[in-house]
């Protein structure tokens, strides 16, 4: 599989980013990634099928919210926090604060160890 | 037509609000309403059919972003800015700033006079 294409910061579309964040599973993924660490897809614990998680991760990536990196057969994902903060100042911060306050996305977590 | 139901601030769902804002027409409506004034639906100039505008206004209302008031045969709409700011601090402000910077929603405007 070739490396997936990611929008440059200047190519990011506000409504794509906002729409990508309008889903509790995707908000949960963003919350898990908010510590800045790259995570293997297998580390993410979500109450959905792998194909559904893959869809959510693609929506986040296509909008520019996350960066996906492939290494061999494994995929890794990071939050593009600096890019988002420079393009849409305050948006991610407000979203994360509201999500934490409202317990949105708390069904997403990390596995005890990477798989 | 009876008055439409609006969620109380405590009933607002973050992802519903965010999803409602993930559309350029709806962002444009929010931008037009951001001056705090109530507007008749007929005052809104949008490049979509009336039925489509009606749909967008319902999505905004159901999420709690706007308040719709009916008077006789006319409908009026306002932005629920205080409710949004108290429930999700900084979210609307960041969204509006990004929308203005990126010219998102600028296809929505006001008619010269109310119809």
From TrEMBL, chains A, B:
<keyword id="KW-0238">DNA-binding</keyword>
<dbReference type="InterPro" id="IPR001845">
    <property type="entry name" value="HTH_ArsR_DNA-bd_dom"/>
</dbReference>
<keyword id="KW-0804">Transcription</keyword>
<feature type="domain" description="HTH arsR-type">
    <location>
        <begin position="6"/>
        <end position="99"/>
    </location>
</feature>
<dbReference type="InterPro" id="IPR051081">
    <property type="entry name" value="HTH_MetalResp_TranReg"/>
</dbReference>
<dbReference type="InterPro" id="IPR036388">
    <property type="entry name" value="WH-like_DNA-bd_sf"/>
</dbReference>
<protein>
    <submittedName>
        <fullName>ArsR/SmtB family transcription factor</fullName>
    </submittedName>
</protein>
<dbReference type="Pfam" id="PF01022">
    <property type="entry name" value="HTH_5"/>
</dbReference>
<keyword id="KW-0805">Transcription regulation</keyword>
<dbReference type="InterPro" id="IPR036390">
    <property type="entry name" value="WH_DNA-bd_sf"/>
</dbReference>
<dbReference type="InterPro" id="IPR011991">
    <property type="entry name" value="ArsR-like_HTH"/>
</dbReference>
């Amino acid at each position: 599989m070739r490396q997936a294409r990611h929008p440059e910061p200047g190519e990011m579309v506000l409504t794509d980013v906002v729409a990508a964040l309008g889903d509790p599973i995707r908000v949960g993924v963003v919350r898990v990634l908010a510590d800045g660490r790259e995570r293997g897809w297998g580390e993410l614990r979500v109450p959905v099928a792998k194909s559904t998680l893959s869809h959510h991760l693609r929506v986040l990536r296509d909008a520019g919210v996350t960066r996906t990196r492939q290494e061999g057969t494994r995929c890794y994902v990071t939050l593009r926090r600096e890019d988002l903060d420079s393009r849409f100042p305050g948006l991610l911060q407000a979203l994360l604060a509201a999500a934490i306050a409202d317990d949105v996305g708390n069904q997403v977590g990390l596995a005890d160890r990477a798989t």
